[in-house]
């Protein structure tokens, strides 16, 4: 038959049961006449694969059987597209295969997250970066101000009020310290008066001829010790009230002042940075930086103005509260001291009632068993 005559010598490859080539075909494809293969003469036979039920074809040099094939084949027409694909390197073909695989099948691998699902580690790194930049700018601004090279924003009225508050805070703390010293000394004097009154009373019992004299002195010392306890209660109330004013009310305002000063430094730092960028050239590289610096400057200016207004309001309310508190406490302190040294026990007790001051009796700090249950 004509189809058997045109069969290609490479149509069949004889394979043994264990997958090895037969020894009779060792010299296949060694004939120089088969050195150059023409695409128009290439044929594929499917008959030789029909009888293969098992075995593995060993890899090695491709060999052509010297014997004439017997299976019919179908001629393949030449194709310029196929020739161009064969002429290209292996890497290009592999790339096309991979592209086809990606288009045809879903591919597993790293998942790209959206912008709203950022990695927490990256967010922390971004926060650290922003904090470092802000700290560098503020430190540079503070150093330039101390060296006299940089300019700073000053609100003369507000700065004056802040300086007065700081000076008053130091003076109030000094007054509290002196009053505490007075209270400690009064406590020691009361203990001495109490001991002296007990000694006079004991001597009055043992000395009948001086019984009345020792008795008068004993009563006087005990009365002074009792009035001293009343005065000590008024002084301790004065100390506690002024301490509350200094350590809580004024200190709360001082925290706002510190935040205001921090906002002022940041505002001046970004203002200086924007001024330096505006003095430089304007090109495609610097324009985005100038725009970003302008945005940051606007943000910190609004923050600075907000903190300035908050501090102004805080100082106003603090001044009103301070006047009320100190007015009452100074009247208390004066009336108590005057009544004590005048020996006016009734006036001293009336002063404590006026300010609702309750004295702590000795041993009265701990509640009794009946009060607890």
Automatic annotation (TrEMBL):
CDD domains: BAR_Arfaptin
Residue ranges of the region described as Disordered: 1-34, 84-110
Positions of the AH domain: 153-353
Biased composition (Polar residues): 91-108
InterPro entries: AH/BAR_dom_sf, AH_dom, Arfaptin_fam
Gene Ontology MF term list: phosphatidylinositol-4-phosphate binding; protein domain specific binding
PROSITE patterns xref list: AH
GO cellular component: cytosol; Golgi membrane; trans-Golgi network membrane
Pfam families documented for this protein: Arfaptin
One GO BP: intracellular protein transport
PANTHER family hit by this protein: ARFAPTIN-1, ARFAPTIN-RELATED
Protein name: Arfaptin-1 isoform X2
Originating organism: Salmo salar (Atlantic salmon)
Organism ancestry: Eukaryota, Metazoa, Chordata, Craniata, Vertebrata
Gene: arfip1
